[in-house]
Write a structure and sequence with these properties.
By secondary structure, the protein is of the alpha/beta class. Helices cover 45% and strands 13% of the residues.
């Protein structure tokens, strides 16, 4: 494997960096390293960078084609991703990937309704059309924000297998009617004392659905098993979402931890479900670096927070592999406020003494490294940048940087030095215009 010949200010690290040039061989060594891992987590430093999605897709496609990865789990909602799953399995009436992604309407819509994901979904459909059931790829959302949609999915499933039970489910879930099954409104109503908790109702519904599983599976076949499993996952999501929104207005970290524990629990349920049919099941997970990188190597641990990366290492040991992504500068698709319009914004050059600045010292190139490379070159704990769905360059240090030990946080790191904005399937005038150059803040 060729190495970068010069690293301005980092000549030793240059000798270890594997260049990313767009060739089919870019990730040969990395794919070999993770060919036997059960769970491969691939992160991103923002939810709006085209190159992060592009490289994550390139790597995932190779793992699917060469190493029998059959589950893709995303930091997205279960019902919305399940619609995509039905499309790539040829089970839906959606005409194309853009239609199949139509469930992703909750802010931020661009996170999954974008050109890169649409192209990948079409590729998955073609791949599945050419393979038997055991080799088909499934696509699932691991997150828990879909309270209303998951309630609807549980009731719809029961309508088909047990209309009397569907009536009981409606009565139980009617507890949320006062807030329109809006999770944040539910949490606020509880915190302000205007609503009683729905905990007993959602627990009762989950238990009933689970206890009646054998009855609902009286029609044999994998399809019936899958539908029951998906419905039960929706009921479990409602249960965990109720706890999440109940906790979110408290001054602690329990809501963050519950969310990441839910995502790992969902992943584990998927592996168990498909292991029963085609063991062993291997999965790729797409999520932000803040979820993928081991929390114990960051400021998160001091706040008592855990995340997917930490929990995956604890549960799967050496069978979990964590990959992070970073960038030095460019553009990003993000909003200025929660729920705000989609914008194409300029990203400040990374701060001096940040990990991104050190990696930029590789001569402004794209490359990947292993954790062993970082340890060998004694890359210290520095600031690391994280841009989610909101980007505030005017308060970037406070809003987007945290302390991290890269070598402990990830098993491998992909650095894409200058990146561009993710292209949404639906753009806005703000996105089309982009941020004027004269308003671009200078990096310090």
């Amino acid at each position: 494997m060729a190495r970068l010949s010069t690293l301005n200010g980092s000549p030793r690290l240059a000798g270890r960096a594997r260049p990313i040039t767009g060739s089919a061989q870019d990730y040969d060594d990395l794919v070999d390293m993770i060919s036997d891992q059960r769970v491969i987590l691939i992160g991103e430093a923002s939810h709006g960078t085209h190159e992060f999605y592009r490289e994550r897709i390139r790597l995932t496609r190779r793992l699917i084609e060469e190493h029998h990865v059959t589950v893709v789990g995303i930091e997205g909602d279960w019902p919305d991703a399940y619609r995509v799953n039905r499309y790539i399995l040829g089970l839906s009436e959606d005409a194309d990937a853009a239609s199949a992604l139509g469930g992703f309407r909750r802010f931020p819509t661009w996170m999954w309704r974008n050109r890169d994901v649409a192209d990948f979904v079409e590729w998955l459909r073609l791949h599945n059309d050419e393979h038997d059931a055991s080799d088909k790829v499934r696509f699932f959302g691991l997150d828990l924000y879909s309270l209303a949609a998951s309630i609807e999915a549980v009731v719809d499933y029961l309508e088909g297998v047990d209309p009397v039970a569907a009536h009981r489910a409606r009565q139980r879930y009617a507890c949320f009617d006062h807030v329109g099954a809006d999770g944040q409104a539910y949490g606020y109503a509880l915190a302000s004392g205007r609503l009683d908790t729905c905990e007993d109702d959602v627990v009762a519904q989950l238990l009933e659905l689970s206890e009646n599983a054998s009855t609902y599976l009286r029609f044999d076949g994998p399809a019936a098993q899958d539908e029951q499993f998906y419905a039960e996952q929706n009921a479990r999501l409602v249960h965990n979402a109720e706890i999440y929104y109940r906790e979110m207005y408290r001054a602690d970290v329990s809501s963050w931890n519950l969310r990441d524990r839910h995502m790992v629990g969902t992943l584990e349920s998927l592996l168990t479900h498909f292991d029963a049919r085609w063991a062993p099941t291997r999965a790729v997970v797409w999520a932000h670096n803040s979820h993928v990188g081991d929390a114990r190597a960051t400021d998160m641990s001091r706040r008592g927070e855990v995340n997917i990366g930490q929990l995956a290492r604890e549960r799967y040991g050496d069978e979990a592999f964590l990959i992070g992504m970073t960038t030095y500068g460019g553009e990003v698709t993000a909003a200025s406020t929660w729920g705000g319009p989609t914008e194409r914004k300029r990203v400040r050059a990374a701060r001096a003494r940040s990990h991104e600045a050190v990696l930029h010292g590789a001569g402004g190139c794209d490359f990947w490294l292993t954790s062993e490379d970082l340890v060998a070159e004694n890359v210290a704990t520095h600031l690391e940048r994280a841009i989610g769905v909101i980007y505030r360059p005017e308060t970037e240090l406070q809003s987007h940087y945290f302390q991290a030990d890269l070598a402990a946080q990830f098993d491998a790191l992909i650095h894409l030095d200058h990146t561009s904005a993710l292209v949404p399937l639906e753009t806005t005038a703000l996105w089309d215009c982009g941020e004027p150059a004269e308003t671009f803040p200078t990096g310090l």
